[in-house]
């Protein structure tokens, strides 16, 4: 299976990439990035993408055959509200629609293009709530992305299956006492999150919105199954 990955130079995306390299179902990983990666792997091809609002015919040709995208590109804060909206909302929706229309239409046997979006806990989908106590802008923008991804799937039911993952805090793999920190901080280890995001890209999920408890419980099982006693590739 061929997948597309963004945000591979970030904390979460880097771990998704490491697990994708290990997964036997993944044969090709197309990384869209503003800069080259330091690692090399036979499964991985990096395409330098400067403009995440527009995709050239050359890039879409390279993406042909991809069945899913894991979108972990985004920023919690930026220099301006305009940049925040552009990066978190406009980039995400441009990619989802382009991939669904161009790549999803080429899939056979009733398959749909899977778009896995990394959102966050406490995202606010009700856009009338402007007076949130903290991180109002980020929560509302992510909520708007979720709403529009769900609406896009309604518009393109034969081409797109969109999924939203909502982790809380994300802990490093080698965090001290993760079993204690996870429930207290409403958090998940990055390995467990990466394992579940990757599985969703491969197999889909029973619901469009995947909340923290499900991510954590199923991620642990999926990680153990994938590693089978091996050391995590991210340690």
Nearest-integer average pLDDT: 89
How far the N terminus sits from the C terminus, by CA atoms, comes to 26 Å
Tell me what portion of residues adopts beta-strand conformation: 15-25%
The main sheet comes to: 7 strands, parallel
Q: Helix proportion of residues, in percent?
A: 40-55%
Radius of gyration (CA) equals 17 Å
Coarse morphology: globular
Helix/strand order, N-terminal first: EHEEHEHEHEEHEHEH
Low-confidence stretches: none
Could you give the count of β-strands? 9
Q: For the largest beta sheet, what order do the strands appear in spatially? A: 3-2-1-4-5-6-9
Q: Please, how many helices?
A: 7
Return the structural class: alpha/beta
Structure description:
The strands form two sheets. This protein has a seven-stranded parallel beta sheet, sandwiched between helices. Strands 7-8 form a two-stranded parallel sheet. The two termini are 26 Å apart. Helix 4 links the parallel strand 5 (113-118) and strand 6. Helix 1 (11-22) crosses helix 6 (190-203). It is built from seven helices and nine strands. 36% of the residues are buried. With 235 residues, it is of the alpha/beta class.
Summarize the structure.
This protein has seven helices and nine strands, in the order E-H-E-E-H-E-H-E-H-E-E-H-E-H-E-H. It has 235 residues and is an alpha/beta fold. Strands 3-2-1-4-5-6-9 form a seven-stranded parallel β-sheet, with helices on both faces. Strands 7-8 form a two-stranded parallel ribbon.
């Amino acid at each position: 299976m061929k997948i597309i990955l963004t945000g591979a130079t970030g904390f979460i995306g880097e771990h998704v990439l490491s697990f994708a390299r290990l997964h036997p179902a993944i044969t090709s990983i197309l990384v869209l990035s503003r800069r080259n990666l330091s690692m090399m792997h036979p499964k991985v091809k990096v395409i330098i993408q400067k403009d995440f609002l527009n995709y050239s015919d050359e890039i879409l040709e390279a993406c042909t055959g991809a069945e899913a995208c894991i979108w972990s590109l985004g920023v919690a804060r930026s220099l301006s509200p305009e940049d925040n909206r552009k990066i978190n909302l406009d980039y995400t929706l441009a990619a989802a629609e382009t991939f669904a229309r161009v790549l999803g239409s080429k899939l056979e046997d009733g398959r749909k293009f899977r778009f896995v979006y990394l959102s966050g806990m406490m995202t606010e989908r009700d856009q009338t709530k402007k007076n949130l106590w903290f991180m109002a802008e980020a929560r509302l923008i992510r909520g708007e992305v979720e709403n529009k991804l769900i609406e896009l799937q309604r518009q393109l039911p034969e081409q797109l299956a969109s999924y939203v993952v909502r982790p809380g805090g994300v802990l490093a793999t080698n965090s001290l006492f993760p079993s204690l920190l996870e429930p207290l901080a409403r958090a998940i280890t990055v390995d467990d999150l990466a394992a579940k995001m990757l599985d969703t890209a491969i197999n889909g999920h029973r619901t469009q919105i995947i909340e923290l408890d499900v991510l954590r419980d199923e991620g642990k099982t999926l990680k153990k199954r994938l590693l089978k006693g091996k050391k995590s590739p991210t340690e």
